[in-house]
Amino acid sequence: MADESWKIPMLVQELAAKVQQPPSRYVQPEQYHPVSLAVGAGKQEPIPVIDLSRLLAVDGADDEGSKLRLALQSWGLFLVDNHGIETSLMDDLINASREFFHLPLEEKQKCSNLIDGKHFQVQGYGNDPVASKDQTLDWLDRLHLRVEPEDERNLVHWPEHPNSFRALLHEYTLNCKRIKDCILQAMAKALGLNEDYIVTQFSNKAPTFARFNYYPPCPRPDLVFGVKPHSDSGVLTILLIDKDVGGLQVLRDGVWHNVPTSPHRLLINIGDYMEIMSNGIFKSPVHRAVTNAGKERISLAMFHGLDLEKEIEPAAALLHEKQPARYRKMKAKEYLAGFYEHFCRGTRFIDSVKI
């Protein structure tokens, strides 16, 4: 029987405690070394900031809506102020996730994403899938959980320790749903669509996944990515970034920009589905995570997707003779299959969907 041990690499947290140099499987080809893809020199334009309270206000919505449209056209992402989530909830959830990642391996593996120790599944604690022997691996472990629909949560994969984890994640999920709906309505208005157009694309079966990313210290940040450059697949991602340790970078006009650590702000970016629905008016941003030689880093991404049977296509109201559809129509499940295949190779599936 062929040796397929390459499909199940060692957990990076365990690996980081044992090696002084990253194994070759994690080292990027020379032309893709993080050090050779440096962030742009000179003073950088700041990441746009949207005030959610103004976006919802009677007297400030138009100005903030214009800022939102410009941010999504030029960056595909923005930081959010006044989002209404208690800072204590944000801190407590990140601290609970840090406590989970610091538990003994045996305890964490109660939430494993491996069936019988060898068959990968999306939910749970562990590595991302490995599709081929020559795939360059990322320097992180993750806990990936389906949080919506609520009746489809598989609590087998939800940590029981720390005791507060489940209640904190539930409360945070409800807050993110509120923010998502507000942002999507504002995005629809910014496109000139009915404000409920995007929200109504979500059925009661539309999935939301919480992904806790744990980046251990890496001995060679110049050679290894925390996460390779990619865009997100879904409609919207709400990211809670580490308030002390930076590492996220976004590509804009061929230049990499650092996303600053910004305590208790959220970072929101659109995904490929939203780029398609906007017919390319809004851009799904390419981003990456670099590693740190001395410090661990944790982030929490909430991925808001669509029902697998939902057809993704440009909004009809945005199309006319001079502006035809720029993307093929495709079911979400077909898009995801292509997306993950391309992600493992470090390429973008959306490029193959363009007409």
Automatic annotation (TrEMBL):
Top-level taxonomic group: Eukaryota
Record bears the keyword Flavoprotein: no
Fe2OG dioxygenase domain boundaries: 206-306
Gene3D superfamilies: B-lactam Antibiotic, Isopenicillin N Synthase, Chain
GO molecular function, one term: metal ion binding
Keyword Oxidoreductase: yes
Keywords of this entry: Iron, Metal-binding, Oxidoreductase
Record-stated family: Belongs to the iron/ascorbate-dependent oxidoreductase family.
Entry protein name: Fe2OG dioxygenase domain-containing protein
Species assigned in the record: Urochloa decumbens
